[in-house]
Amino acid sequence: xxxxxxxVAPGYTETESTKEALSxxxxxxxxxxxxxxxxxxxxxxxxxxxxxxRK
Length: 55
What we know:
Blueprint: H1 16-21, H2 24-33, H3 45-54
């Protein structure tokens, strides 16, 4: 059918608004559940998706 789908589920991103909305204890609990043991970076996944889409 020629249908192509790309999905991204980035999860929590390390931003000022995330730090303001969630306490340090809550953020540490979230990080424990993330396979890479860190929050996403604003320039990371979104930048790669944009580059991928532009090809």
